[in-house]
C-alpha cells in the first residue's frame, strides 16, 4: 500500500515538472485528469526547480559580471526554465481582456496563437520590470557582498507563484466548460491545494535556511510570501473571473507572472 502510494505521488511530481517546466524527465506518466489533479500538490516543487536555477545563475554571474547583462541572463534562464509557457499566457490574456470585446470574443482572441499589440506591450513591460528588479538585486549583492539572502528570495518566488496556479484551478470555474486546462484538472480540490500550500511553506523554509536565515525570520518570510501571493492572486482572479466568467490556462499563466513580479519587488524592498 505504501509502495503504491509512493509510486502514485512520484508520478504526480513528475507530471508537475513535465507540465510546468522544460526539464527533460525521461519517464512516461499517465496524463489523465485524476493524475493531473493530484499533480497540483507538486506545483510548488516545479517552481522550486525554476527558482533554484535562477538563484544559482544570479549568484554565479554576480561575482564577475556587471549588473545589467547579468540581470538579462538571469531573466533569460528564469523564462527558459518554463519554456515561456506562462509568459505566453500573460500575452494571450492581455490580448483578450484588454480588447474590451464581449466575453465570447475575448476567449476567442486568447485562443488565437497569434500575438496582438496589447500582448506584445504587456510582455515588454513585464520583462522590463523583472529586469529592473533583478539588476537592482544584483547591485545590492555587489555593494554588500552578501548573496545568500537575495538568492533565497529569488528561489522562493516561483514556489509561491506556482502554488497560486493550483489555488486558482481549485477556486474558480473554467471559462471554457469541459475543455482546456480546467477540464484536465477537473477533479482537483481543496485537499490538493492545501497540501501544495504546506509544500510551498516547507520549501520556503528550506531555501531560507540555505540562505542563512534564522528560523523566526524564515517563518515571517513564509507568512509574508503567502500573504502577498494570496492578495495579488485574488485581485487577478476576481478581475479575470468577472471579465471571462471563469479562468483559463492562459489566465493561470498570467497570474503566475503577476505574482512573480510582485514577489521579487517585495524581495527587493525587503533587502533595501
Could you write a compact summary of the structure shown?
By secondary structure, this protein is mainly alpha-helical. The chain has twelve helices and no strands. Helices cover 78% and strands 0% of the residues.
Describe the protein's architecture and organization.
Helices cover 78% and strands 0% of the residues. It has 272 residues and is mainly α. It has one domain (44-271). The longest helix is centred in the last third of the chain and has 30 residues, at 215-244.
Count of all domains: 1
Q: Mind describing the biggest β-sheet?
A: none
Question: What is the helix/strand order?
Answer: HHHHHHHHHHHH
What low-confidence regions span 5 or more consecutive residues with pLDDT below 50?
A: none
**What class do helices, strands and sheet pairing give?**
mainly alpha
Strand proportion, as a percent range, falls in: under 5%
Rg calculated over all Cα atoms = 18 Å
Mean pLDDT comes to 91
Globally, the shape reads globular
Distance between the termini: 51 Å
Number of strands: 0
Helices, by number, come to 12
> Helix fraction?
over 70%
Amino acid at each position: 500500500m505504501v509502495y503504491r502510494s509512493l509510486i502514485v505521488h512520484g508520478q504526480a511530481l513528475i507530471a508537475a515538472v513535465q507540465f510546468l517546466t522544460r526539464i527533460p524527465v525521461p519517464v512516461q506518466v499517465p496524463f489523465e485528469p485524476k493524475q493531473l489533479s493530484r499533480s497540483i500538490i507538486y506545483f510548488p516543487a516545479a517552481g522550486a526547480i525554476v527558482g533554484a536555477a535562477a538563484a544559482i545563475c544570479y549568484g554565479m554571474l554576480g561575482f564577475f559580471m556587471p549588473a545589467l547583462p547579468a540581470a538579462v541572463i538571469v531573466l533569460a534562464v528564469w523564462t527558459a526554465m518554463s519554456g515561456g509557457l506562462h509568459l505566453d499566457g500573460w500575452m494571450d490574456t492581455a490580448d483578450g481582456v484588454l480588447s474590451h470585446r464581449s466575453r465570447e470574443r475575448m476567449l476567442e482572441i486568447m485562443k488565437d496563437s497569434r500575438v496582438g499589440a496589447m500582448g506584445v506591450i504587456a510582455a515588454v513591460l513585464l520583462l522590463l520590470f523583472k529586469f529592473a528588479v533583478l539588476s537592482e538585486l544584483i547591485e545590492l549583492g555587489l555593494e554588500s557582498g552578501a548573496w545568500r539572502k537575495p538568492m533565497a528570495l529569488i528561489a522562493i518566488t516561483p514556489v509561491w507563484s506556482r502554488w497560486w496556479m493550483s489555488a486558482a484551478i481549485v477556486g474558480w470555474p473554467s471559462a471554457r466548460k469541459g475543455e482546456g486546462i480546467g477540464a484536465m484538472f477537473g477533479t482537483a480540490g481543496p485537499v490538493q491545494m492545501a497540501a501544495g500550500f504546506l509544500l510551498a511553506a516547507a520549501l520556503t523554509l528550506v531555501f531560507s535556511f540555505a540562505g542563512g536565515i534564522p528560523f523566526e525570520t524564515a517563518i515571517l518570510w513564509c507568512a509574508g510570501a503567502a500573504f502577498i501571493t494570496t492578495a495579488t492572486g485574488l485581485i487577478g482572479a476576481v478581475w479575470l473571473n468577472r471579465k471571462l466568467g471563469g479562468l483559463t490556462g492562459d489566465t493561470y499563466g498570467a497570474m503566475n507572472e503577476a505574482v512573480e513580479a510582485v514577489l521579487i519587488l517585495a524581495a527587493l524592498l525587503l533587502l533595501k
